[in-house]
Amino acid sequence: MPEREVPAGAMGDVDVVTRAVPTASRLLVTLSARSLAAVEERVMLPQFRMLVMLSTRGATKLVALADLLQVAPSTAMRMVDRLIAAGLAERHLNPDNRRETLLQLTEEGRRTVQDVTARRRTEIGAIVERLTPARRLALMEGLAAFNEAGGESSVPRSTTWRTRWGGRWTSPRPVTADPTVLFIFHGSNF
């Protein structure tokens, strides 16, 4: 993505940006916690991260899941046991290798991920609606740049196409990528 021209002296100091990111992170964590409130008796945030991983990856081996979540396999096993007890995940034999067990979501687990994600998107959407279109675009560009610099997935191209018009990069339609997915589900470890 081409960078915009920035007037001399307008570049933010790295320290200022470094202090601003944790503030935004706290807001996103607060929104995440609120979105989990309806299911918090059954699912805590680390377990929800596991549900999301299973939702996006499908049936997964425990060791691979532990690696993705950056936890020890024994920790992942305890998390899986809790999710199975809550009826949100299940184990089954790998049809390609009967010595392996795969983990996957139940229908209730899928609904839980969808419901929590919908609540989170609604809350984030209410905040994003208060931004001007130019600030929305700047936010998306900033999140994409931050994710790229951190080695994480960025906004899918299909949601951020732009046209060059009048010397500025603009979005010809509303940007619909979910910042929750950009930040919370791609690599945050809270």
Look at the helices and sheets and give the structural class. Answer: alpha+beta
What level of helicity do the residues show?
55-70%
The residue ranges in which pLDDT falls below 50 over 5 or more consecutive positions are 157-190
How many helices? 8
**Spatial strand sequence of the major β-sheet:** 1-3-2
Overall outline: elongated
Proportion of beta-strand residues? 5-15%
How many angstroms separate the termini? 29 Å
CATH topology group of the largest domain = Arc Repressor Mutant, subunit A
The mean pLDDT is 79
Task: Output the CATH class name of the largest domain.
Answer: Mainly Alpha
Secondary-structure element order, N to C:
HHEHHEEHHHEEH
Say which CATH homologous superfamily of the largest domain is assigned: Winged helix-like DNA-binding domain superfamily/Winged helix DNA-binding domain
Instruction: Indicate the radius of gyration in whole angstroms.
Output: 19 Å
Largest sheet: 3 strands, antiparallel
* Strand segment tally: 5
Give the CATH architecture of the largest domain.
Answer: Orthogonal Bundle
Return the domain count: 2
3D structure, described in words:
It is a single chain. This protein has helices at 14-36, 45-57, 62-69, 73-85, 107-129, 133-149, 157-160, 179-183, and strands spanning 60-61, 89-94, 97-105, 163-165, 168-170. It is an alpha+beta fold. It has 2 domains: 36-130, Arc Repressor Mutant, subunit A; 132-190, no CATH class. A hairpin with a 2-residue loop joins strand 2 and strand 3 (97-105).
Summarize, please.
The protein has 190 residues and is α+β, with helices and mostly antiparallel strands.
